[in-house]
Design brief:
Radius of gyration: 33 Å
Distance between the termini: 74 Å
């Protein structure tokens, strides 16, 4: 059933063959024979689907006859001999099984069985190239992938849905065996949802009597939903019973520590500090957590081979980086301010920023005011504004950098409830310390299930940090209080 040409070159002792054999002895002759039989019926099925999608056919009855003959293996014309193929598509469950084999989920790609079938469909398209109307695109006609013919598979399956149906037992056993990975089962479910969508969107079927369409379509949808439910239930139970994959969690620990394990120049705002301690002895009072909620357990379950985001490691590193930046800046916002000023115009606040910063060693400005941010960014293409306030831009700074005002570095404060600015010196930033867990690891990652769920929980990323700011460095609060309709 599962055997195709892709498996034959493999050693009979391979893991893939062992999954197929399920404890039985390997017989090359039997495997080769079954492979050819599968290929024979698969070619008939894809030919039937391809013909069903043929545009502008003016002999629908004859086309339906050919399609049914291809599926059942019956002769179109009497030959005088007796007998009929025992290898046919006699029900919708058989058709779905053939479709699963066509999709070749586990091995789809160069050199696979699915690719070979696609090459056959591509050759079909070349037969009719001269008949195509220039500029017209026919849905499913000329495409070279089983999914491109889903509408035909659906129509054939609906025509065989006089009653509720199921997958054959052999196919159920195969899907729930180790041959089909978790991600393969997910792909089957996705394809079946597409089948239901197609059934709901179309009513014009060559193979289905319009008077019976509602009943047949209803049986088809219930049958497919039942198969989806059965696969989903089995998946959920397998995930629920699985242990956490400690190796994968350990990989997350290292990946999410990237901002701290990097031995180059620290990113903003860590680069503001004079001292950077990566091996401090910190207790849980210095712990910070990032919780990724509604995280599927299957992504960290041992033995579950599922689809994962390609950039998940870098995404987790970004989560820690962003959270760490926010917590450093929150420490700055909590630091006592030495003096506070209010302004009602842009020129006034920019003028004072220049004057005050000139009296500071290594001045740095953090801008929370949206109006001031807008003016500073607009100065990049308004030379008059930039010249009047000595605004310039330099290379080599992180994303939060806006510009320089004189010799003062300017950074954005990205807090929705902060609409003021803080002007201080880098001398304020004394030491930032972190706890080291292991080589290149400063973050601990764990997974906890949600209450009442066996398959969904939260991923907890935890790190330890302490920020020391000097108490005798001026920190000036600057507020811009102007009306929305005032010119800036």
């Amino acid at each position: 059933m599962l055997i195709n040409h892709y498996l034959l070159p493999m050693e009979s002792t391979s893991d893939t063959w062992q999954l197929v054999l399920r404890g039985n002895d390997y017989d090359y002759s039997a495997a080769f024979d079954l492979s050819l039989r599968n290929a024979h019926i698969d070619l008939r099925v894809i030919t039937a689907c391809y013909m069903l999608l043929k545009p502008g056919d003016d002999q629908p009855d004859l086309l339906a006859k050919y399609i049914k003959a291809l599926l059942t293996g019956s002769r179109i014309h009497p030959s005088g001999s007796i007998g009929q193929s025992r290898h046919n598509i006699s029900n919708a469950g058989d058709l779905l099984g053939a479709y699963i084999r066509h999709r070749d989920y586990r091995y789809y790609g160069e050199g696979s069985y699915g690719t070979w079938l696609s090459s056959i469909m591509e050759s079909f398209g070349r037969i009719y190239e001269e008949r195509r109307v220039s500029g017209r695109i026919y849905s499913g006609w000329g495409a070279n992938d089983p999914r491109s013919m889903n509408r035909a598979y659906v129509e054939i399956a609906i025509s065989m849905s006089g009653t509720i149906w199921k997958l054959p037992n052999d196919w159920e056993e195969a899907i729930f065996s180790g041959f089909f990975r978790h991600m393969d089962q997910q792909s089957i479910i996705s394809d079946l949802h597409d089948w239901i969508k197609i059934a709901n969107e179309h009513d014009d079927y060559l193979l289905v009597d319009p008077s019976s369409l509602e009943i047949f379509k209803g049986n088809f949808i219930k049958s497919v939903e039942g198969i989806i439910q059965k696969i989903s239930d089995a998946q959920r139970q397998l995930v629920a019973d699985a242990d956490k994959d400690r190796d994968r969690l350990a990989n997350f620990c290292v990946a999410s520590s990237a901002i701290l394990s990097n031995k180059g120049d620290p990113e903003f705002p860590l680069g503001l500090f004079e001292h950077f301690d990566r091996e401090a002895d910190l207790n849980d009072n210095s712990a910070f957590s990032v919780n990724i909620v509604d995280y599927a357990k299957e992504r960290v379950a041992s033995g579950i081979d599922t689809s994962r985001a390609i950039n998940e490691d870098s995404w987790m590193a970004d989560c820690i980086s962003n959270n760490l930046k926010l917590n450093v800046l929150r420490s700055l916002l909590k630091h006592p301010q030495s003096v506070s000023y209010e302004y009602t115009d842009i020129d006034g606040i920019l003028s004072d920023i220049r004057k005050i910063s000139e009296s500071m060693a290594i001045p740095v400005l953090f801008v929370g005011s949206q109006k001031l941010k807008s003016t500073l960014r607009r100065s990049s293409y308004e030379p008059e504004v930039a010249g009047r306030h000595d605004i310039s831009r330099q290379d080599g700074f992180d994303n939060e950098y806006i510009c320089h005002i004189g010799n003062c570095e300017v950074y954005s404060l990205s807090f929705s409830d902060v609409d003021y600015c803080l002007l201080t010196s880098k001398e304020l930033f004394d030491t930032v310390s972190f706890r080291k867990i292991a080589d290149d690891q400063y973050v601990d990652v764990d997974f906890e299930l949600n209450k009442g769920s066996d398959t969904v929980g939260k991923l907890i990323l935890k790190y330890w940090m302490k920020v020391n700011l000097t108490g005798n460095t001026p920190c000036v609060k600057l507020e811009l209080v102007i009306k929305d309709d005032d010119s800036v």
